[in-house]
Write a structure and sequence with these properties.
The chain is built from three helices and four strands. With 82 residues, it is α+β, with helices and mostly antiparallel strands.
Amino acid sequence: MTEIQKGKYLFGTVKIGERGQIVIPKEARDVFNINPGDNLLLVGDEKKGIAIVKADLMKDLALKLLDNMNDITDIVNSDKKN
């Protein structure tokens, strides 16, 4: 594992198995607190690549977004009036 910038890591390479599976390196599991049974969200962009994110982090982000929805609506409506 190499920390290439504060909080940014290079964990090395992984090989895709015959069933399309990969092993997340132990160092990466430790840094990101990934444990057996955790749900991971796999997202991708054809130009930028693939990312793996803990599903609970995305759930927290969605809940924060929903909690702030009234504020966002107020800002949008205010901009429309001006």
